[in-house]
Write a structure and sequence with these properties.
Length: 428
């Protein structure tokens, strides 16, 4: 029986001090992989597996399900997505250790025919340069003294200019960039800020039920009772077991990490909460960040009626979509996901239920599209474009808004996306 997929959220503390895990994270954030979210996920997932399950074999189908959102029973002979990306990853790893990672003490490789990384400690036979002892200084000559004084004065002048330039550079760095300004505006308001991590178990559970459960049903947590209408005993048991565990997606943990980096930089305190452990009253008195979509994070439903682009899921045909409640010229009334081709994401910045805090919603028709929303709100370039689309003056606060994105899923790197529509919901 195959080992269960690695749960990134539960492995963080175990792997934190492992130099092999630290190496994998450095590679994932390197120039070679920085623009390829899928290759980043593939590298970190397979590394986690190798470190946490050294005696087990990782199979192609397990990677496809965990990293590329394929079903557990997908046909690997027809769908070669894992092999294609693994070929690219091996190539990028080789390039990294030949260039940017040439000084790494270890080399990470994924041998052909296998799907888990191997680590090799580098050895070096290069001679270490030993400094030659300086010759005794010759006695100073009287005629050199004025020259030395002039050189000393010039050195002090140059040092002063350099120090002034350095101080100005550091002052410029201290000024918030577009991303920091936006996050400080949203969340540095003395209220606690919670990142609600999506409940991937719930998505699987609803697939078993063949329907979406309501928010009151989710809050009641009567999983066995809700599963009773499932006729097949094995399927019913599987549905019940799904809700015993707390699973989330790798992209969710990656998003939480990227958001955490910005929060730490901007002195914003964050608390990660699993969706099933979240409480509705926190929507009234805290800042909230919601990701994924309503099938894995039902708390988004509290804000759905406030928004123009509203998420839905077709249970019969198994696809997500957004309905445009008030289409403008050139806009469509319905945007539905086209698997491996096109997806959509809604980024919404709105007040919390008591209008005293901020809520940021990153909701996609699929995981890759949700990643596009996370990339937008953590990118200086995209925040600058957002300000341009909102026609904001320099230094003006960003108002509450709703941003609708179209994503191109037919790429092997981070999904390309474009802004389709913008709605303003008042002053931020």
């Amino acid at each position: 029986m195959a080992t269960e997929p690695v749960k990134p959220a539960g492995s963080a503390e175990i792997l934190t001090g492992d130099p092999r895990w630290q190496l994998a994270k450095r590679v994932a954030s390197s120039v070679k992989l920085r623009r390829s979210r899928r290759l980043q996920r593939l590298l970190l997932f397979t590394t986690e597996w190798a470190l946490l399950h050294p005696q087990d074999t990782l199979h192609e189908q397990e990677i496809g399900a965990a990293v590329f959102e394929r079903s557990n029973e997908y046909d690997t002979s027809e769908d070669t997505i894992v092999r294609v990306h693994m070929f690219q990853l091996r190539k990028r790893l080789k390039e990294y250790f030949e260039t940017e990672g040439a000084g790494e003490p270890m080399v990470l490789e994924i041998p052909r025919g296998a799907y888990t990384p191997e680590f090799t400690v580098r050895t070096t036979s290069e001679p270490v340069a030993v400094p030659i002892a300086a010759e005794p200084a010759a006695p100073a000559k009287p005629w050199l003294s004025p020259v030395r004084r002039w050189i000393a004065a010039l050195t002090i002048l140059v040092a002063g200019i350099g120090l002034g330039w350095l101080m100005r550079s550091r002052a410029a760095e201290a000024r918030p960039n577009p991303v920091d300004s936006f996050w400080i505006q949203m969340f540095r308001n003395r209220l606690p800020t919670e990142v609600v991590v999506a409940d991937s178990s719930l998505s699987l559970y609803q697939e078993m039920l063949e329907r979406n459960i309501t928010l009151p049903e989710y809050q009641a947590r009567q999983w066995s009772l809700l599963a009773q209408p499932i006729a097949d005993p094995a399927r019913r048991s599987m549905a019940q077991m799904a809700m015993v565990h707390h699973y989330t997606s790798f992209s969710e943990t990656l998003a939480a990490h990227n958001i955490g980096v910005i929060a730490a930089r901007d002195n914003i305190g964050l608390n990660l909460v699993f969706a099933r452990d979240f409480e509705a009253r926190d929507l009234e008195n805290k800042n909230i960040i919601l990701g994924g979509n309503m099938r894995a994070d039902p708390w988004m439903r509290f804000f759905e009626d406030r928004l123009n682009f509203q998420y839905g899921y077709d249970d019969e045909h198994h696809f997500g979509y957004f309905r445009n409640m008030k289409p403008r010229p050139g806009e469509e009334a319905l945007y539905r996901v086209q698997w491996d081709r096109r997806g959509y994401c809604r980024v919404a910045y709105v007040p919390n239920l008591n209008n005293i805090g901020s809520v940021l919603i990153l909701e996609g028709t699929d995981l890759s599209s949700a990643e596009a929303g996370q990339e937008l709100v953590t990118s200086n370039e995209w925040i600058s474009q957002l300000r341009d689309r909102l026609s904001l003056a320099k230094g003006a606060r960003i108002p509450y808004f709703e941003l609708f994105l179209k994503t191109d899923l037919a790429v092997d790197s981070a999904p390309r996306f474009e802004i389709v529509a913008v709605r303003i919901h008042g002053k931020g």
